[in-house]
Amino acid sequence: MALSEYNSSLTLEGLQTKPERQYLERKGRDQKATKIANELIGMLNAGGGTLVYGMADDGTVEDLQTLPPRELDAYRKLLHEFIQPPANIELEEIFLPDGQLIFLFHVEPDYERLFSRKDNEAVYLRVADSNRGPLNRDEVKKLEYNKAVRSYEEELQDDFDPEDLDATICEEYRKAMNYTGSFEQLAVKRNLARRKEGQVTYKNSAILLFAEDPSQYINNAAVRYVRYRGTELKSGTQFNVIKDQRFELCLPKLIQQLEAFMEASLRDYYFLNMENGRFERVPEFPKEAWLEGIVNAVCHRSYNLQGNCIYIKHFDDRLEISNSGPLPAQVTVENIGRERYSRNPRITRVLAEMNYVRELNEGVPRIYGAMQQSMLAAPEYKDVENTVTLTLRNKVTNHKETIHADTLKQIELHWSSLSDKQQAMIGFLLQNQEATISQMIDATSITAQAVRYNLKKLEELDIVERISEKIRDPKALYRFKNK
Q1: For the segment 366-378, what is each residue's pLDDT rounded down to a tens digit?
Q2: Residues ≥6 apart with Cβ < 8 Å to 142
């Protein structure tokens, strides 16, 4: 029987018998409110969980009603008294069947903010089944990196060699800013570098923007394009990767190269305007959508999380663009089209100054607009396991091949003289590429005799061909003629 309204998986038996682990902690009645606060801070800075107050380590219930009312209130108030910034923790007061009282603190993880004690700024971190802390300065700094609180783009890179700067991009930025001095002076002026005792040290933002190969200094500062045959990832003997290419350049050149590469990699399809019989070329995905998706990934990636590069996964029916780092605290998959943010504001600002991106998160609304204008499904965002993925879906999943140019001309030439039935059958083949007579009957509501008659007429016009070695074959396929 569920014990909690907030987490239906929690039962009294489970809370008493399950071993303490990353997401479950028991604390007896004698624990001070400050100790409980420390444990909650540790959970907030890790992956969240549930803390049971009023239950000993061995699962024995210790009725909180035996505490003086004023002391019990201290535990109710500890979220506000001892934890900063305001945390997403729900306190649930549970009366067990025998009347005993326990507190359940439900802790939601927050991957963007760092939590600490309000009175002494001590920071804690839950690791496995224990709470670590107070953390020392280096440990706090590392945790800030992991939680993307400290601005990684602002960190100085002491071992960067200015000889590794891309001179052409540096000059492009200098001209874009209409700056008469040197690039080094401009970098210092724009807070991309710092001058101290005559020496200039560049920040990570400058390396990502202007180094010939940022990956030499920042692991996986790259984009990887993978093309799959079909709509699902397969392995082993069915391994279906048909192209795998990696791009490692400074961000402006990276955007340039990806734009050219994707234009060459994405397909165009011809769709028939059923009103005038003219074929119109339709791209697999609108450029404004996929290019903005790539640029947004480049701008908003958590570069301090260096385990994975940015991925562009291209399936027959969709494009998935993913980058490391959760959405910022104020942004959700529901409001991403409205909420304005920038994880790397300095990088975004420079790219905007160089006309590679627009500021104020205008890219996401443009993605939605471009997909809607192309009458495609709305973009889908997912934020799972510290990875944000944008999915764009097309309408050409079933296109097996491009219709021959001569066949397109024949359809356009004869369209006005074709019957409604013949036009409907052509429309069905445009969506499915091939079909049997029975499939035609089911889809068009045309009688079998009429389907056969009209297919024969379309064959005579060199628009359709029959695929079968048998004279009488109910499973014979009809498709557009491949000249």
Answers
A1: 888 888 887 788 8
A2: none
pTM, full prediction: 0.58
54 near 102, Cβ under 8 Å? yes
Contacts of 149 (CB under 8 A, 6+ apart): 112, 113, 114
Which residues lie across from 57 on neighbouring strands?
Answer: none
Sign of the four-CA dihedral 225, 230, 231, 237:
negative
Which two tokens mark 352?
Answer: 């905007």
Comparing CA positions, the residue from 446, 402, 409 lying closest to residue 424 is 446
- Which residues have a Cβ under 8 Å from the Cβ of 378 and sit 6 or more positions away? 368, 371, 372
Cis omega (within 30 of 0) for bond into 109: no
Q: Which of 222-236, 382-396, 429-443 has the highest mean pLDDT?
A: 222-236
Domains and CATH numbers, the chain: 12-146 (3.30.950.30), 153-216 (no CATH), 223-393 (3.30.565.60), 405-480 (1.10.10.10)
Q: How far apart are CA 272 and CA 281, in angstroms?
A: 9
238/234 Cα distance (integer angstroms) = 6
> Starting from the edge strand earliest in sequence, which strands make up the sheet with 223-228, in order?
241-247, 223-228, 310-314, 318-324, 387-393, 380-384
Task: Give the gyration radius of the chain's Cα atoms.
Answer: 31
Chain Cα centroid distance, residue 422: 44
Task: For residue 456, give both structure tokens.
Answer: 């024969």
Spell out the SS3 assignment of 226-295.
EEECCCCCCCHHHCCEEEEEEECCCHHHHHHHHHHHHHHHCCEEEEEECCCCEEEEEECCCHHHHHHHHH
